[in-house]
Amino acid sequence: MAPTSPQLSGWERVAQAVEKVRLRLKRAAEALERAGIAYAVVGGHAGAEWVGRVDPAAVRNTQDVDILIRRSDLEAVKTALASAGFHYRHSSSIDMFLDGPRAKARDAVHIVFANEKVRPEYVVAAPDLTESVAGAAFRTIRLESLVRMKLTSFRDKDRTHLRDMIDVGLINETWPERLTTELAERLRQLLATPEG
């Protein structure tokens, strides 16, 4: 992708940035699949995948590329992603693969480890890779597992992604009974305030 040109409009720059992130995700997923490494896309792109299956117009762009792997596969992932031009970096307890030697952390693939808590204070651990499904472009985490992850982190962007899923009918009033007490209460709050 060519560097951003000053002659491009703001709208064209947005389209270029979205395409750059899409290609980053595609390259990473293809590299992992070529190497035979189990993975699943999580985070905002997993949310976009599920929402897009119902209503493509409701899909929200996201900068983050988050991929779930097994910790025992990290060395193999380093080799696979290096072959696709990514550079491994561990910073502030986050494992990531920068998209090029001069890339910033926002231009990276962030790693989440299966069956481990992303943060010590989180209520539940990240799901197992058996909780993933194949999609047209990449493997993604199952919807119920993604909802648990979003309810666990519960940052503003996670609440927004959950509201998008509610808006398109992926999540409804029957869902809280599938969850632990704390996560069920968080979901009930969102169901009660769909507009925020």
- Spatial strand arrangement across the major sheet: 1-2-5-4-3
Quaternary organisation: single chain
Q: What's the architecture of the domain at 12-142, going by CATH?
A: 2-Layer Sandwich
Care to count the β-strands? 7
Average pLDDT confidence is: 94
Radius of gyration: 17 Å
The global form is globular
Walk me through this protein's architecture.
The chain has 196 residues and is of the alpha+beta class. The protein has a domain at 12-142: Beta Polymerase, domain 2 (2-Layer Sandwich), CATH 3.30.460. 41% of the residues lie in helices and 15% in strands. It has helices at 10-34, 43-54, 74-82, 143-153, 156-167, 181-192; strands at 40-42, 65-69, 87-91, 94-98, 108-113, 132-134, 139-141. The strands form 2 sheets. It has a 5-stranded mixed beta sheet. Strands 6-7 form a two-stranded antiparallel ribbon. Strand 6 and strand 7 form a beta hairpin. The mean pLDDT is 94.
Summarize the structure.
About 40% of the residues lie in helices and about 15% in strands.
Key features?
about 200 residues, alpha+beta, Beta Polymerase, domain 2, 6 helices, 7 strands, about 40% helix
Strand and helix layout:
Blueprint: H1 10-34, E1 40-42, H2 43-54, E2 65-69, H3 74-82, E3 87-91, E4 94-98, E5 108-113, E6 132-134, E7 139-141, H4 143-153, H5 156-167, H6 181-192
Parallel strand pairs: 2-5
Antiparallel strand pairs: 1-2, 3-4, 4-5, 6-7
Helix pairs in contact: 2-4, 2-5, 4-5
